[in-house]
Write a structure and sequence with these properties.
This protein has twelve helices and 22 strands. By secondary structure, it is α+β, with helices and mostly antiparallel strands. The strands form six sheets. The chain has a five-stranded parallel β-sheet, with helices on both faces. A five-stranded antiparallel β-sheet has the order 12-15-18-22-19. Strands 6-9-7-8 form a four-stranded antiparallel β-sheet, sandwiched between helices. Helix 2 (about 50-55) crosses helix 4 and helix 7 runs antiparallel to helix 8 (about 155-165).
Length: about 425
């Protein structure tokens, strides 16, 4: 099939690779230098109408939308209006991610377990509320923040500072919720709105520094699979995934695409930290290399409302992702740093997340720059291979966590 991938980060590079290895003709916009090695990169305006026209002009069989901003802009709606199958939720359904206040209210309406929370539309009321709360306090910007609009405040002062930052923007809302304890895990469901298949569980590492310290980022590394007992997976299906899809359909917002459930495995059972409306980044870089079956066929079937979950198959292996981020990330990442990649290595892929070519040379162009993914028979082997490759990359000043996998007792892997 002829498929158009929309996006230009590490997630989209992983999607491109998953499509290409099954022999499909892959196009991508806006793409990046790594993607250009496996797909034809197209230049286009990035608004919904222009992207739908591009898909029509290129006579593609399917569009797969990567980033959340494109979903919120209505790219799936625009493609559907032209009769082009598109994998992803509609603009209205993507509100499940794009508006955390609405998403929390949706969970309350449908009895989906999550942290106790309140939503505020002004600074004064939110400040008064946090002064009565014990720490830690979770403060979330209700809008789309690319996975970074969350503060786990260890003090009242930190919570108040986060609220001042949120309400510096006009029309902002803040969600203030209880801090949950337990292991955090990501479950992705490929769905046609009714039927769904779960990916292996994965675990991201959100903060910039080792030991889960420092500011929140979009994600600094992933292990997959994260060990979740079958009995807990059954609860996740019964109490979270199924009622979410049924609730969206009941509210006239059928959800097709990837339902990302960020969960906390609390002592009281799994609870939702957040929903996203697309593949996670960097979770996609960990999960998709383990997909044995054909992503393009699954995406087309989901878009057409005919997904057969039994056809979705994953290899019984493990994967690990190590992110190389620019110096200064997540606040002010330094750009245009020269990068030199080592030769390819079997079982290891370097996905480009924030790169560009300058005079034919590879340089950094974003915060998270490279996602080094390794697959192996065990998580420990995958981590060793990923760190070995990461240490061979010449990227002056790069930030890299050395403790990916530490929460399940995997020994830190160092290659200095």
């Amino acid at each position: 099939m002829r498929v158009l991938i929309i996006g230009g980060g590490g997630r989209e590079h992983a999607i491109v690779a998953a499509c290409a290895r099954h022999g499909h003709e892959v196009l991508c916009t806006p793409g990046n230098p790594g993607i250009a090695r496996q797909a034809r990169v197209l230049h286009s305006a990035q608004d919904a109408a222009s992207l739908a026209r591009l898909a029509q002009q290129e006579a593609v069989d399917l569009v797969i939308v990567g980033p959340e901003a494109y979903l919120a802009a209505g790219v799936v709606d625009a493609c559907t209006a032209l009769g082009i199958p598109a994998f992803g939720p509609t603009q209205a359904a993507s509100r499940l991610e794009g508006d955390k206040a609405w998403s929390k209210a949706f969970m309350a309406r449908h009895g989906i377990p999550t942290a106790h929370h309140l939503t505020f539309g002004n600074l004064e009321a939110s400040l008064a509320h946090v002064r009565d709360l014990p720490t830690p306090i979770v403060v979330k910007d209700a809008g789309l923040k690319a996975g970074k609009g969350v503060t786990i405040a260890l003090s009242q002062q930190e919570a108040e500072a986060a609220l001042h930052d949120i309400f510096a923007e006009p029309g902002a809302q803040a969600v203030i919720e209880d801090f949950m304890t337990g292991q955090e895990v990501t479950i992705l469901a490929l769905t046609d709105g009714e039927h769904y298949a779960l990916t292996p569980p994965s675990q991201d590492h959100k903060t910039i520094f080792d030991g889960d310290t420092g500011p929140m980022t979009g994600g600094m590394g992933v292990i997959c699979p994260f060990p979740v007992p079958d009995s807990v997976l059954d609860v996740i299906r019964e109490k979270i995934i199924t009622p979410t899809l049924q609730g969206m359909a009941a509210e006239g917002l059928p959800f097709r695409g990837v339902l990302y459930a960020g969960l906390m495995l609390t002592p009281q059972g799994p609870k939702v930290v957040e929903f996203n409306a697309r593949f996670g980044d960097p979770e996609a870089e960990a999960v998709l290399p383990l997909l044995a079956s054909d992503l393009v066929q699954h995406a087309l079937d989901a878009a057409m409302g005919r997904l057969d979950p039994d056809t979705v198959r994953f290899r019984q292996e493990a994967s690990a992702v190590v992110i190389l981020a620019a110096p200064g990330y997540p606040a002010e990442p330094v750009r245009d740093i020269p990068i030199t990649l080592p030769p390819d290595s079997s079982g290891v892929t370097v996905f480009h997340a924030g790169t560009r070519l300058a005079g034919g040379a590879l340089v950094s162009s974003g915060g998270r720059v490279l996602a080094v993914t390794a697959t192996a028979a065990s998580l420990q082997e995958a981590l060793g291979a990923a760190y070995s490759m990461a240490d061979q990359i010449q990227f002056p000043g790069a930030q890299m966590r050395r403790d990916i996998g530490h929460r399940i007792g995997l020994a830190p892997v160092t290659h200095v």
